[in-house]
Amino acid sequence: MSKQYAVIGLGRFGSSLAQSLTQEDNEVLGIDINEERIEENREAVRHGVIADSTDEQAMKSLGIRNFDVVIVAIGDNMQASILSVVVLKELGVKHIVAKALSKHHGLILSKVGADDVVYPERDMGQRIAQKLMSPSIIEFIKLSDEYSIEEVRISANITGKSLIELDIRARFNVNVIAVRYSNNSVKISPEPDYRLKEDDVLVVIGKNDDLKELEKFNA
Ligand code: ADP
């Protein structure tokens, strides 16, 4: 069953989030103090109301505590973002996600009751830096400071070789968990004798340092 989300603050981040959640068939209510923002998102977000999220009475009358997740996507106005989390917590919202601009801002948001704090600008900067440094990495998921999962676009060096010939596990201490073919279908735990084709993508898991060695070899 789809969840009910409320997104407070339809700036660049909030509106993109609300649109994506709507596209995936969730019930989404967009809330903004500024009427123009509600109008701009009318088609993509469908349900929108003009309201001030620091106003406890206004939030109460929207039934904000009945939403499964409420996201505070207010950016520049730090005071309003912190106060909004206080109000939502006070009203008993089950799951509050809040966007922070800085570490200090994030710390305060957690202290006043945000269950999750997100740092979209910081995270996006890191992802783009990673992409610039390693163009063959399509996607990566950091599992811990030590381990990651990466999707690696294979180079001409590797094309045509079988997984057993490459022997990635023994040489790099990295495990191949899947191959994504050019038609986007995915083969989990591919057979060792599978020969890699041009445009295949390897999904690998390992220590960050070991993954870097594999990247150099694949370059
Ligand atoms: P971004 O950096 O993601 O574009 P902005 O700070 O520009 O974020 O946008 C934040 C949005 O939050 C704006 O549309 C603004 O009108 C809205 N906003 C600010 N304060 C409140 C509030 N108290 N209640 C509801 N919406 C608010």
Automatic annotation (TrEMBL):
Residues 135-219 form the RCK C-terminal domain. Signal peptide: none annotated. InterPro entries: NAD(P)-bd_dom_sf (IPR036291), RCK_C (IPR006037), RCK_C_sf (IPR036721), RCK_N (IPR003148), Trk_Ktr_HKT_K-transport (IPR050721). PROSITE patterns: RCK_C, RCK_N. Pfam families: TrkA_C, TrkA_N. Residues 2-119 form the RCK N-terminal domain. Gene3D superfamilies: NAD(P)-binding Rossmann-like Domain (3.40.50.720), Regulator of K+ conductance, C-terminal domain (3.30.70.1450). PANTHER family: KTR SYSTEM POTASSIUM UPTAKE PROTEIN C, POTASSIUM CHANNEL PROTEIN 2-RELATED-RELATED. This is Trk system potassium uptake protein TrkA. It comes from Fictibacillus barbaricus.
